[in-house]
Amino acid sequence: MLLDKTLQDIRIKVCSRCIYDERVDGIAFDEQGICNYCHMVDNLAKQYGTGEKTGEAILNRIVQEIKRAGRGKQYDCVIGVSGGTDSSYLVYLAKEWGLRPLAVHYDNTWNSAIATQNIRKVLSALDVDLYTYVIDNRESDDIFRSFFLAGVAEIEAATDLALAEVTYLAAWKYGVKYVLEGHSFVTEGISPLGRNYFDGKYIESVHRIYGKRPMKTYPLMTFSRFMWWSTVAKIRKIRPYWYISYSKEDARAFLERKYGWQYYGGHHLENRMTSFLHGIYLPEKFSRDFRNNTLSALVRNGKMSREAAWAEYNTPPNVESDLLAYFKKRLELSDVEYERIMNEPPKSWQDFATYKKRFEHLRPLFYMLAKGHLVPMSFYLKYCFPIKV
Amino acid sequence: MITIVDYGMGNLGSIMNMFKYIGVPAVATNDQDKISGAEKLLLPGVGAFDAAMLRINDSGLCPLLDRKVLEERTPVLGICLGMQLLTRSSEEGKMPGLGWISAVTKRFPATPGLKVPHMGWNVVAPTRESPLTRGLPEEARFYFVHSYYVQVDNEEDSILKTTHGIAFDAAIQHGNIYGAQFHPEKSHKFGMQLLENFARL
Amino acid sequence: MLRTRIIPALLLRNESLVKTLRFGKFTYVGDPCNTVRIFNELEVDELLFLDISATREGRSPNLKVLADIANECFMPLGYGGGIRSLSDAKAVFDIGFEKVAINSFAEEEPRIISELASHYGSQAVIASIDVKKNFWGHYQVRTCGGKHNVRRNPVEWARELESLGAGEILLTSIDREGTWDGFDVELVKSVADAVSIPVIAHGGAGRVEHIGEVVQQGGASAVALGSMVVFQKKGMGVLVNFPDERELRMALYSSV
Fold first, then answer.
1. Which subunits count as partners of chain A given 3+ CB pairs below 8 Å?
2. Domain A52-284+335-383, CATH 3.40.50.1460 — does that match?
3. pTM to 2 decimals?
4. Closest Cα partner for A106 from C30, C42, C18, C10?
C-alpha cells in the first residue's frame, strides 16, 4: 500500500493539484489531470463564498438569526466538542461572536486524558457549560466488537452517528435551534463518496448479526428520528468554517498559547478507538489510509508541496505502543482471534442493510433540506446519489 | 535485569508492572540459581517484621543473600518492610533482621494528634546525594504506609529524610545496599525515576 | 508534612463506572480502565473503587475488572464491595490493591475487621460507614447500599471498628452524596474527634472550599471525591477531571 515516496517515480495516476490517486473511490480526472474532488472543493467554496466577503456576510446573517432565535433561552446554539482543534476553536469563535453555546460531548468510553483535559481547559476558560452523553462501556465495546467481527471499515460509525444524535438531543433538551459544526472542507477535503459510510440501519444490521448485548444506552439515530430532527424539530446545522477562512495550524497555535490546550500530534490520540482505526485497522486490513484527505487539503491550500505530502503519505503512521494490547483487552479478543479476523477478507457496508436506497429516492427532499441548513450539504452530496462502484 | 526476591510477602504485581512500564526487565523468584546469578536484587515486603524474617529464614535463601549482598556487593534495594528487614532488629518483633545496614527499626512514638500508621503522600528532602535519588525534583513526594521507621546509626547512610511527628529516614544507602521506606511502585512518576535510577546503577 | 489525601472515589456497577445521587438514581460515567488511565496521567494520589452492586446482589468482587484496573495503576488502590471473607480480601490484595473497605459485612460479622487487620495490617483495612439522618435528624448507620437501618450511632460504631483494628474510616453521608452542597462537617467532626485513626470524608464535595472546610473544621485526614471528579459542574456533563493543585493547596493550607 505504501508506495515510493518520490512522486516522479510513481506508475499510478495522481491528481496534478492534490495527492488523491487513482486508488481513491469514485475518482475521475479531467484533461489537466485535476481530480473531481478538487473541483468539488472549488465548487463548494464558490457556493459558500468561503473566505470572501460574501461568505462572511452570510455567516454574519446566520449568527444574528441564531441570537434572535435563542432569546430568552439558556443557550442559543450547541457545539459538539471532542477536545480537537476544530471544535475547540469553534467554541472560542462562538463566544467571540457573542453567542451563548452549550458544548456537547459523546463519550464512547475510549477517550484519552488529553481529550478530557483539552475540553476542560477550553470550556472553563470560556465559561461554557458541557452536556455529555456516556454510553454504557460494555455496550460500547459490544458495538465496536460487532463491527470488527463483521470485517467492515466503519468501526467508528457508531461514534459518528451517536455524536450527531446526542447533539440533537442536547439541542432539543434546551430548546436550541442551531448546531454549529467544526467541519471544514477546505482543511479536511471532501472524503470520497462511499468512504466511511454510516447510518442507523447499518449500525443496527451489523449489531443484530454480531452483537451480544442489547442496545439500551446507545443513542441510535433511526431514519424516523433523523427526519423528525430535520423536518419537525427543524434543528439547523451550520458549518462556520465553510464561510470564513480558517487555518488549522493558526487555530492550534492559538489554543496552545491561550488555554494550554495540547495537540495530539496528528495521530488521533484523543480517542483510542480513532487512533486504532487510523493507525492500525484501516492501513493493515483495508490498505486504506485517509491521511490523504488532510494532506491533499494542505496541498490545495498551498501549505505543503505535493512532493512533501506524497512522501509523508507513504510513510507508515505512528501508533501508541500499547494501543493494540489495549484494544484487544477491551474487546476481549485473544491474539489468535484478532489475527484471524484481521486476515479475513474485508467486507463493505454494501453487504449490509442500510438506508442508502431510501436516501437516494428522497433526493429532492434532501436537496431542499440541505438548502435550508436542516441537513449538511455534504450529506446530500454523499448519500443521495448512487455510488459508481 | 532486576531479580525480585519472592519470599511470599509483598505485592510483586505492582512492582513488576512499573518495571514493565519503564522498560526494565524484571523477574520475581525464590529460586536459588536465579538469585545466585542476579545482577541486581530487590527485596519487597508488606506486613509484619517477624513473619517476614521467618519466611526468609525458612526459604533457605539467607546464606545466599548474605553472600550476594555482603561479599559480591550485588546492588540490593529493600522496599517498605524490605528496608526495615535490612536493619538489625525491629521493635515490631523479636527476630533479628538481616543486619546488612547498621540501623534499627522503631515504632512511631505515641503522640497526641499523630496518626499511626504514617499513611499517605509525603515530601522527602535529600540528606546527601546518591545515585538512587538522582533527577528527583525538589518537591519529590512518595507514598508511605508504615507504623515503624528506620533509624540509621551513621548519618552518612541516610539519603532522604521526611517528617511525620519526627524526622526519619525515608531512604538509606550503605555502599551497594539501598532502602526505601515508601512504595516507589505506587508513587507514579517519582517512583519511576527512582526505579529507573536503580536499574541504571 | 503529610499531604491531605484527595481520593477520587469511583463507583462500579456491573463493570461500568457510574455516579449516584443520594445512593439512588445513577448516571453512566464510563469505562473503569480508561478512567484509571486518565487519573494516572493526572497523577492523582490514590484511587478508591466501590462496587455498589456487589452486596446488593449478594456476590463477591468482580476480579476480572479489578485485575484490569490494577495493572493500569501506579498509585495506591483501595476496593470495597461484597467482601465477606478473608479469601475474598486476599484475592483483591493479590491482584495489586493496597486496601480493602468493608461496610455491610462488618456489621454482620465484626470479627472480619480484626482478622483482616491481624493478617494484612490495619493500614490495609478501611471500615466504611454510610450515614443517613433519620426523621428526627439523628445520624444513623445504614448498610446494603443505604437500605438497612442497623440502628447504630456512627460515633459509637466508629469507635468499635477502631478497637477491632480498622486502619481508617471511610465516612459517607448518604444525604449529601451527589449534591455538591458540601460535606456534612458536623458528622465528620463527631467521628474524627472520637477516634485516633484517619477519617476519610465522603459525600457532598462541590467546590475546593468544601475540601478545606471538612479538613480544617471537621478534622478529616483525607477526602474522597465523587461527583466533582466525574462531572464538569453540578448538573452538567460527564468529564473526568481533578481539582487544580494550586487551588487545593490554597484551600487546604491557608489558615482558618
1. C
2. no
3. 0.80
4. C30
